[in-house]
Amino acid sequence: METSVKPDTVIEASFKFLIYDQSFGKHREHLGNHSFQVASTTSGTSCMIPLETLKTSGFLVNNSCTFGIEFIKVATVKTSAPLETLFVTKMNVFNEAKVYTWEIEDYFALKNPSYSPEFEVGGYRWFIKMHPTSEGNHLSLFLGMKQPNDLPKYSGNLVELTISIKDLENGEDKKSTGRCQFSNNATSWGWRKFISLEDFMDRSKGYLIKGKCCVEAKLAIVGPSKTE
């Protein structure tokens, strides 16, 4: 799903992706939550339905299928941060993406919030921050950059980021992807409602098994940037 967003606005959206089963007259659903903003205008799922299931079920009849979306809640929030114009230095290719895996042995023993060990990508130190939302019904995941010492006041880095919670049993990971700018004034970015705690703790989904879970961050520095 894609939207257009004003620079001073964040749109908090909860929604369902739908695919219609024409044989049984019902939908398969995938719940999504995303904070839409200038740096992240799209959201989706990497595996709505396995391709083989699509081909051999009532979802595809006479080479025709029906997709839909249902909005559950949409809220618009004005940001208090000063507006910035972003300029990215042109690059021929992306810097190679790096993957960091945070293996958590006992989720219930974590502090709130919890922080992963630091790891290095592109010459900078990073960490993952995880905590339940203030309402207590979702899990938040953010990538943080340790305060850099060598970035000029109006410079930063544009980063492409994918954060995943690994499905330890079924291989159907929960993941979200976006682009964001990290600078001296913006050292953290992610998803406030990454996944509902109900889904996260549902044993059948494989995200939390006997207290164990695994969070993965894949990031690539697209290029240096400056703001005006």
Describe this structure in words.
This protein has helices spanning 51-55, 197-200; strands spanning 9-21, 26-36, 67-78, 86-88, 98-104, 114-115, 119-121, 124-132, 138-145, 155-165, 174-183, 188-196, 213-227. The chain folds into two domains: 1-83, no CATH class; 84-228, Sandwich (Apoptosis, Tumor Necrosis Factor Receptor Associated Protein 2, Chain A). The chain contains two helices and 13 strands; from the N terminus they run E-E-H-E-E-E-E-E-E-E-E-E-E-H-E. Strand 8 and strand 9 form a beta hairpin. It has 228 residues and is mainly beta. Strands 4, 5, 10, 11 and 13 form a five-stranded antiparallel sheet that branches. Strands 6, 7, 8, 9 and 12 form a five-stranded antiparallel sheet that branches. A three-stranded antiparallel sheet has the order 2-1-3, with no helix packed on it.
Q: Tally the helices: what do you get?
A: 2
CATH architectural label of the largest domain: Sandwich
Major sheet details: 5 strands, antiparallel
Q: What's the Cα radius of gyration? A: 19 Å
In the CATH scheme, the class of the largest domain would be Mainly Beta
CATH superfamily of the largest domain: Apoptosis, Tumor Necrosis Factor Receptor Associated Protein 2, Chain A
Order of helix and strand elements from N to C terminus: EEHEEEEEEEEEEHE
Structural class: mainly beta
Helix content: under 10%
Distance between the termini: 30 Å
Net shape = globular
Low-confidence stretches: 81-94
